[in-house]
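User: Please write out a complete single-protein record containing the residue sequence and its fold in token form, without commentary.

AI:
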Amino acid sequence: MTNSPRLTTLANRVYRMVRLYSSNGALGALGQLPRFAARRLFLRPAPANVSLALTYRCQCRCEHCYSNAPDRDDHEELSTGELKSIIDQIKRLGALQVIFSAGEPLLRKDLDEIIHHAHQAGLLTRLNTNGLLLDPERAARLKKAGLTQCAVSIDYPDAGVHDSLRGVPGAFDRAVQGIRHLQEAGIPCQICTYASRRLIPDGLKEIISLGRQLGAMSVYFFWPVAAGRYDSAFELMLSAEERELVRTLQDPTFVHMELPTARTRCDVIIKRILFISPQGDVTPCPFVPFVLGNVRDLPLEEIWRRHTSALQLDFRDDCLMNDVRQRELIRKHAASVAGSLG
């Protein structure tokens, strides 16, 4: 880790961007960079990342799941055509990357078609998965579709504990095998984990070691968030001291996190992220469940414009949802934006 937190943050961001664009291998993605930069330069915010949730269906029942969707079937999921239209709107926003998430995106039969459309549109593409369905043939198809990067969740370095947290026997071994299949297919892989209190610090160090052993591109830490199945579980959130301990594990070339310093503001506040649910609801990010509008009713550009022009928050070090006052402020903000869209 570098001595300066600011240098660490900058090094992380530059290093990740270079690796993603080199692995993407498409000139169209590079073409999005000037569009993104121009919007930011002229104070017209553009989201660096848009998380597009494809389904709330999932084989797992994770205790920390941020979505906690009661409806686990495909009720009113966005169609293939709707998703392609949304991807085109994401591109026009000036976004750099679309992240396919939820749920388990690999349960969508049209996933390859959707990824291919985003790749052809000139967007970096990332898939967040539990890894259960990543066999060699599936990994090869994702590579052919144009997937830039895949993130596989590992909740604990011990197979038994990971399987228990996920509610699926054998989940750990299948996720590890999935990472190997991604490597064989030539898809850069990131291991994602929640920096839960039970992992600090030795468990996190073991996950880092596992990532290096498997040849992963990087390891990414999320903070526990008081949302979804952890809604209002503030006692499970990390203290400032615990967050600082996790930050000592950073490595600009391998170990990353969203809030690398205590002075860092989250991507919601700096207007670099957006989330779209499988039913088209737009929220500030995957962990903030307050709805700004729905893309089935209004263009994404209009929802984004109203949201970013009205957002006036400044909070650092942790997720907005982990602070009672801040989560109430973002809830009121979303309600105001949704009301203005009528």
